[in-house]
Each structure stands twice: as structure tokens, then as C-alpha cells.
Design goal:
The complex is a heterotrimer. In chain A, 38% of the residues lie in helices and 24% in strands. By secondary structure, chain A is α/β, with parallel strands linked by helices. Chain A has 2 domains: 122 residues, Periplasmic binding protein-like II (D-Maltodextrin-Binding Protein, domain 2, 3-Layer(aba) Sandwich), CATH 3.40.190.10; 125 residues, Periplasmic binding protein-like II (D-Maltodextrin-Binding Protein, domain 2), CATH 3.40.190. Chain A is elongated. The termini of chain A are far apart. Chain B is mainly alpha-helical. Chain B has 2 domains: 40 residues; 225 residues, Orthogonal Bundle (MetI-like fold). By secondary structure, chain C is mainly α. Chain C has a single domain, classed as MetI-like (MetI-like fold). Chain C is built from 12 helices and no strands. The chains are: A alpha/beta, B mainly alpha, C mainly alpha. The interface between B and C is large, with 85 and 85 residues.
Chain lengths: 277, 287, 293
């Protein structure tokens, strides 16, 4: 009799334990025993998160190689479409045309804003939307008119492949022109370091990339911060997507699943993005 | 047996040379095939003349073409006098020990990676130009040309020195015997003997400036515009190729960078033809 | 010629000389000043232990190790492709090619030597896309494509240095063995090549330097920002010059920027070393080759 009860207890407790263990299982465990490569390219706002995720995965399993390249959202979508990479990141939603043409599957794993930044030595901390448009059109060319020093404004922008540029141009500039005099750089990180190094520079960058080396500029009184983007007060925002051609399989699927686990979402949050879960 | 070995070896050697030469042609054909849709019907010239504005469906490379020409010419304008002076110093005016030292430094400079020049350019030259000249971001035509002039000076100097050292000893002695000084030796004997080397050096260095990617990409600013002053941002053909590269086969952007490639190829081939004709002319003259 | 003009001219030359020296001292001094402090094992291996990294048991993050391995791999492969073809082509040019054929081939090599590296990179990229579309989905911009492109980049240098090395041998050297009854091939293998080995060798070293420093080709054909040590020919990889380019514009923090200075210094040291080896071997190898044969 006693033994029976004991067995019963074991029978009940074991699955409970197993479930608990499962719930607490490290999501990285799913990569154990795997080997191979995942190639990632595209959106440059994504890169810090991609790198950190890759580090964690490659640290538990040295047999996995994850390669990460930039290029911008356009490049990411095209390269994954041509199957040159496994995952193509984009800082904008792929267009319907792109989705249909390449049979893309989209995975949105974070929300991000696009904020205007200047050098911390520049006193200008707020602009109206119309002023911003004039600045980027090259119509206002001196900081003095805006309350800054009597110096020329140096514009920094991104190339056409950039999702950040696309979002900024659509929402902040209302599709008005960007001056052709603007310096063109290749990534979010590059705009940040360019503005950090240029006391008279202005650029736009993923909110996740804003740190103490650059100063955010409020647009119509609303500063680009994590909070204002989350509360949807700051409207220049977009989702961060990882796209695959057709349904992801194998390692690629595991990588994308990992991004959506609590651990993956924590990486996104640590890098200044708003997790979707 | 031995005879057969000879034949086979000759075959392999011939094949290697032919394959290598064929690659030269192949690259051009490759560029042509990929760029063809944009080039048909004489559109190449339209492409060279029109601006770049993908949103309006314009994929012209005029700003990049002019950017390349301006940056190269300005770079040469800085590098030529500098190199000429250095070369004259090395082979004529400086004491032997200092000349030898300078020559070693110049030779070592040929080994410095381009990307290192670009790296130092970003963190040293760009802020300097921005603060001293007080205009623009410092990423501009001038900055890139200055750095490029440092990059190509060794090439120029070594060519010039080679030419200057060619002057026949007997002629130099003759001038000295007539009471001529070093300067007169330089003007009347050394320079006339060196002009083909000087020209070849210039053409070769010009080819290098045209073809350099990293310095312009890193410190010229890359704005798609025809620069209005030396302090304005500019983009070269080479930087354009590096910036625009995307994997979409069928997009016009992708094809337009092949137009850049073809233009660069033709430019550099022209330089080679020029050098060869300089060599041929001076060769005939000597005979 | 007036005395004043002469004076000005000489002073101008001295100014030029010192300007150049000042420029290069500033560039090197700046790099040393900023980067020397960052050069240590941590710069290369990050937090991973050296043994684990070298045995590829663990990946190195935040260190230059993958980039250095990538550079070594891409240089070795490309020089490996270019040397046999290049030397064979050079021997053909010097010993077999005559007349019109020689002129046409020489012209081709000169043009190839002048083609900007970004154009060669572009062709390599296009080739990768072409092969990917029409032959195998496993081919994309990778270590293999990069090394092929770099091989094309240095091929003309190797051909020409081999050719000139052979052609500059004295006519006597060329005739002796043949006069004693050696065949053309024997003459080449036993006499001509050993005598010109040093010049050929220094050409190769310079080609290695060219491969190691070139950035435009690799950035279009497979070098990426983050990759780990490449495990196959068809993997993307990190490389030192690309790392320097990448860090220069997109460093995330001060530590990354410092590692950029460190990487620049290391790359420069490698190139300077190769350069010295090239100029030293001109004498060294010549002696050796003379004694052996």
C-alpha cells in the first residue's frame, strides 16, 4: 500500500518537475548538438542585437558560426530574397511587392524609434517639424537661426537602401526632399559616430543607438526616448524585422525563435529597443 | 620522353599566360553584360551626363564622375610639386646620407595600407580641416585630396628619382667642368633626360588616384552632388560602387554600378595606353 | 638663371622634403600614440583563453583573432591561386613569347594591373551572383570568391616580376647551359630560375602585402562585420582591413575604437615586415640559390 502511494507521488511529481525544468530551460539549449552557419545581413539598427544573440549562441555551441553584415534594410530584403543570406533584417516592413516577389516571412521582434540627434556640445535640443524639414532640405543652413552657434549645419543622411531613412523620410520629413549636400554614411552606428565627432552635425538614428555621445532633439516638443516611443507619443517609429524567404527551417528557425524568447527579448531591451513580448 | 616533357611544359606555360590575359578581357565582358541593359541605344552617355536620383528613376553617374575627376586632379595638384621637390632633394640637392634616408622612408611609405590612411584621416585630418577652415563637416573634397596626395607621393617620387638618376654621368661632369652648379646640372641635364619618367609617373599615379576607393569612401563625405567648392562633400565612382552594391539582379541601381565599373575600367586602360605611348616616344627619341 | 631663383628652388625642395617627413611622422606617430597602449593579448583574444582560441574550441568575441585568421586565410588562398599561374605566365612571357603575341599579352597584363581594385571586387561579386543563380545555391560572396578576386588583382604583378627577373639575367648566363647541350626547359629549370629566384620571391612578397592590405575587393566579395573564424571555403569571414574600415565609421564605444587603432598598427606592422623581407631577400635568396645549384 505504502509503496503504491509512493509510486503515485513519484508519478505525479516527476512530470511536474519535468515541466518546471522545461519552463526554466535555457532557450540556448535548443542549439546544443547543432552545427552549421547562419548568414545575416541588412538593417544596421539590428546589428548590436544580432551580435549579442550570436555571441550567446556561439559561446554555448562553438560549432555554430553566425555571420553578420550590414548594408541597410533594402540590401537585407534583396539578399534574403536572392537566398544569398538566411536572414535579411529590415528596419521597415517589407513592401507588399517585396513580400510577394520573394515569398518573405516576417518576424517583428522589437519596436524602435528614429530620433534626430546633434552633438552634445550643440545647445539646440528641440525643433519643430517644419524647421526640421527646412534643415534637411538645405534651406536653413546655419545653427544661429535655431539658437545655436554661428556655424554651418552639417547634414548626415543614409543611402537609399536604409530603412531608417525610409521611415524618417516618410514620417518626419513628410516625403520632402533631403539635400544632396548631405554627407552619406552607411549605418546607424556611422551616423551616431559622425555626429558624435562633429560639433555642428545633425543626423537621424535608431533610438536604440542614442547614447551619451549624441544629444537627442525633441520634435514638436516630444523627445525621442524609449518611453515616448513605447507610449506612442513619439510617432517616428517602426518595427524591427527579421525576414526569411519562405518558412524558416533548422538553425535559422531556432535563431528567430530565440529572438522571441524572454532571453532574446531581453537582449533587445538591453540594446535600447522595445520588446514586442 | 624528354622532348614530350618539354612540349607539355610549354603548353602549360602558354596556357597560364593566355588564361591570365583572358581574365583581363573577361572582366570587361562581365561588366558589359551586367551593365548592358542600361547601355543599349547609346544610353551610356546619358548616364554619364544625368544626375543620380533613384526616386525619380534617374541613375546617372555625373556627380560621381565629376567627383572622381575633381578629387583626382586636386590630389595630383598637391602631390606633384611635393613629389617633384622631394625627388629633386633625394637625387640632387640633399647630402647623400639625408637623401638616402628620405628614399628609404618613401619606399617604406609604399607599403602603408590605404585603409590606415583613411583611418587616420577620419580621426586626425577631418577634425583639423573642419576646425581650421571653418566650413562644412571636414569630410570634403579637400580632405580626401590631401590624404590621396600622401598616398600617391611615393609612387611619383620613386618614378621621378628613377628618371633623375638616369642622367649620364659624363654630361653632368661636362656641366661641372664648364663651371655649372648643381642647379644648372639639374635644369639642363637631369630634367631633359627625365621627362619620360616624370610623365609615366604622373600617369601611373593618376591611375592610382582614380582607382582608389577607401580614402574617398571614408573621408570625402559621399554626398551625391557635384561639389561646388573644395570644402563640399563629394562622392567618387569607386566609393559609389562600394556604397550602392546590392544583390538585386534586376534593379537599375545594380546595373548603374556596372556603368561606373566600365567607366573606371576604360579610364585606367586609357592611362596604360598613355604610359606605353610615352615609353614608345621616348624610346624612339633615344635611338 | 638668377641666384634668387636658384635659392628659392632649393628651399622649395627642402620644404617639400620636410613636409613629406612631417606628414608621415604625424600619421605614424598618431597611430602609435593612440594605439600602442591597446596592443596586448586581450586586443587579439578578448576574454577567451589563448589556447582555446588557437585550437578553435571557443569563439573569440571582442578580439581581433577572427579577423587575423580571416586575413591569413584569404591571403594564403589568393597567393596560392596566383603564384602557379603567375610564375608560369611570367616564364612564358620571358622565354617563349615572341613578337606580336608577347606585345598583346604584355598589354593585357598592364591593363589588368591598372584596373582599380573596386572594379575587380565588383566583377568578383557579379561572378558570385551569377554562379549562385545558375550553378549552385551554395555559392555566394565568400572566402573563395574573395581569394579568387584578390588572385586576379595580384596576378599581373607576379607575372611581370617573374618576367623581368628572367629577362634581366645576363646573356652569358642564358647561353652557357644551352651551349653545353642543355634543352630549353633544362636551362630554365636549372639555370635561369635559380638565378632569378630572389627577384621572383620579392615580387611574391609584395603581392602578399597587396593582398593583405586591400579592402575594396574583400568588402564587395565576402568580408563581413562579424563572423568568427571561417570554417569553410564558402563561408563569409572577417578580415583586418575591413575591420579597420568598419570600426572607423561605426565604433560603438571607446574600447572598440581603441581596437581599431590596434588593428591599424598590427596591419601596418605586417605590411612593413613583408616589405622589409622583400627588400632583404633580394640579396639573401640570391646567395642561397647560387650556392645550391
Amino acid at each position: 500500500m505504502k509503496t503504491k502511494i509512493l509510486w503515485l507521488l513519484v508519478a505525479v511529481i516527476l512530470p511536474v518537475f519535468a515541466m518546471m525544468a522545461n519552463a526554466h530551460a535555457n532557450p540556448l539549449d535548443s542549439f546544443k548538438g547543432e552545427s552549421g552557419t547562419i548568414r545575416i545581413a541588412g538593417g544596421t539598427a539590428h546589428i548590436p542585437v544580432m551580435k549579442e544573440a550570436a555571441r550567446q549562441i556561439m559561446a554555448v555551441n562553438p560549432a555554430i558560426n553566425i555571420t553578420i553584415a550590414g548594408g541597410g534594410s533594402g540590401v537585407g530584403i534583396k539578399q534574403v530574397g536572392e537566398e544569398l543570406v538566411d536572414i535579411g533584417n529590415s528596419g521597415r516592413k517589407p513592401t507588399d511587392g517585396e513580400i510577394a516577389r520573394y515569398d518573405l516571412k516576417m518576424f517583428e521582434w522589437a519596436i524602435d524609434g528614429v530620433g534626430v540627434v546633434v552633438n552634445p556640445r550643440n545647445p539646440v535640443r528641440g525643433l519643430s517639424k517644419s524647421r526640421l524639414q527646412e534643415i534637411f532640405a538645405g534651406k536653413v543652413v546655419n545653427w544661429k537661426a535655431l539658437g545655436g552657434a554661428d556655424k554651418g549645419i552639417n547634414l548626415y543622411t543614409r543611402d537609399e537602401a536604409s530603412g531608417t531613412r525610409e521611415v524618417f523620410w516618410q514620417v518626419a520629413l513628410d516625403q520632402k526632399e533631403i539635400s544632396s549636400k548631405a554627407n552619406v554614411v552607411v549605418s546607424n552606428g556611422a551616423i551616431k559616430s559622425a555626429v558624435a565627432g562633429d560639433p555642428y552635425g545633425i543626423g537621424y538614428v535608431s533610438v536604440g543607438h542614442i547614447d551619451e555621445t549624441v544629444a537627442p532633439v525633441a520634435i514638436d516638443g516630444i523627445a525621442p526616448t524609449l518611453a515616448s516611443v513605447r507610449e506612442r507619443k513619439y510617432t517616428i517609429s517602426r518595427g524591427l524585422f527579421s525576414n526569411t524567404r519562405k518558412e524558416p527551417k533548422g538553425l535559422t528557425k531556432k535563431f528567430i525563435d530565440f529572438l522571441l524568447t524572454p532571453e532574446g527579448q531581453k537582449i533587445a531591451a538591453d540594446n535600447g529597443f522595445i520588446p514586442v513580448k | 620522353m624528354a622532348n614530350r616533357l618539354e612540349k607539355i611544359t610549354e603548353w602549360i606555360l602558354t596556357l597560364s599566360a593566355l588564361v591570365s590575359a583572358f581574365i583581363t578581357v573577361l572582366i570587361f565582358v562581365f561588366l558589359l553584360i551586367f551593365g548592358l541593359p542600361l547601355l543599349q541605344g547609346g544610353q551610356w552617355f546619358d548616364l554619364l551626363a544625368s544626375p543620380w536620383s533613384p526616386r525619380e528613376g534617374l541613375y546617372g553617374i555625373r556627380p560621381m564622375l565629376l567627383g572622381t575627376v575633381y578629387i583626382s586632379l586636386l590630389g595630383m595638384a598637391f602631390a606633384f610639386p611635393l613629389s617633384f621637390g622631394c625627388a629633386a632633394l633625394i637625387s640632387v640637392f640633399a647630402p647623400r646620407s639625408f637623401g638616402g634616408f628620405l628614399r628609404k622612408v618613401v619606399q617604406l611609405m609604399t607599403g602603408i595600407p590605404t585603409v590606415v590612411y583613411g583611418f587616420v584621416g577620419i580621426f586626425l585630418l577631418v577634425p583639423m580641416v573642419r576646425e581650421i577652415l571653418q566650413g562644412g563637416s571636414g569630410m570634403c573634397l579637400l580632405t580626401a585630396s590631401l590624404m590621396l596626395s600622401i598616398l600617391i607621393s611615393p609612387t611619383l617620387i620613386l618614378f621621378f628619382v628613377d628618371g633623375f638618376d638616369r642622367a649620364p654621368r659624363s654630361h653632368l661632369d661636362a656641366v661641372a667642368a664648364l663651371g655649372g652648379n648643381e642647379m644648372q646640372q639639374f635644369i639642363f641635364v637631369i630634367l631633359p633626360n627625365a621627362w619620360s619618367n616624370v610623365l609615366s609617373g604622373i600617369v601611373l599615379a593618376f591611375g592610382r588616384v582614380l582607382g582608389d576607393t577607401l580614402i574617398a569612401l571614408m573621408i570625402a563625405g559621399n554626398a551625391v552632388q557635384v561639389p561646388g567648392s573644395v570644402l563640399e562633400s563629394a562622392r567618387t565612382l569607386t566609393a559609389h560602387v562600394a556604397l550602392v552594391i546590392a544583390a538585386d539582379y534586376d534593379s537599375p541601381e545594380f546595373k548603374s554600378i556596372f556603368a561606373c565599373g566600365i567607366t573606371l575600367y576604360l579610364f585606367s586602360a586609357m592611362m596604360v595606353v598613355l604610359i606605353r605611348s610615352i615609353g614608345a616616344i621616348s624610346g624612339r627619341k633615344k635611338r | 638663371m638668377s641666384w634668387w631663383l636658384e635659392r628659392t628652388m632649393i628651399i622649395f625642395c627642402w620644404i617639400c622634403g620636410f613636409t613629406l617627413l612631417a606628414a608621415i611622422t604625424t600619421i605614424l606617430g598618431y597611430l602609435l600614440y593612440q594605439g600602442l597602449g591597446s596592443i596586448n593579448l586581450r586586443l587579439i583574444f578578448g576574454n577567451t583563453s589563448v589556447v582555446d582560441a588557437l585550437l578553435l574550441r571557443k569563439h573569440v568575441f571582442a578580439g581581433l583573432f577572427p579577423a587575423m585568421v580571416g586575413t591569413v586565410a584569404v591571403v594564403t588562398l589568393s597567393v596560392g591561386f596566383a603564384i602557379p599561374v603567375g610564375i608560369a605566365g611570367g616564364i612564358y612571357m620571358a622565354e617563349y613569347a615572341r613578337g606580336g603575341v608577347k606585345a598583346v599579352l604584355g598589354f593585357c597584363f598592364d591593363i589588368l594591373a591598372g584596373v582599380p581594385s573596386v572594379v575587380i571586387g565588383l566583377s568578383g561579386f557579379a561572378l558570385a551572383i551569377f554562379l549562385h543563380r545558375h550553378f549552385s545555391a551554395a555559392i555566394y560572396p565568400s572566402l573563395f570568391i574573395s581569394s579568387l578576386s584578390l588572385a586576379v588583382l595580384v596576378l599581373p604583378y607576379i607575372i611581370r616580376s617573374t618576367q623581368f627577373a628572367l629577362e634581366s639575367l645576363p646573356a652569358d648566363t642564358r647561353r652557357i647551359a644551352v651551349a653545353l647541350g642543355a634543352t630549353k626547359l633544362q636551362n630554365i629549370v636549372y639555370v635561369l630560375i635559380p638565378r632569378s629566384l630572389s627577384a621572383i620571391f620579392s615580387g611574391i612578397i609584395l603581392a602578399i602585402g597587396r593582398c593583405a592590405e586591400d579592402t575594396a575587393v574583400i568588402m564587395l566579395t565576402g568580408a563581413v562585420a562579424f563572423a568568427g573564424v571561417p570554417k569553410s571555403l564558402f563561408a563569409q569571414y572577417e578580415a583586418l582591413p575591413f575591420y579597420i574600415y568598419y570600426i572607423s565609421s561605426q565604433y560603438a564605444n571607446q574600447q572598440e575604437l581603441l581596437s581599431g587603432y590596434g588593428a591599424s598598427l598590427i596591419l601596418m606592422l605586417i605590411c612593413a615586415l613583408l616589405f622589409f623581407v622583400a627588400s632583404m631577400t633580394r640579396k639573401g635568396v640570391a646567395c642561397q640559390a647560387l650556392y645550391r645549384t
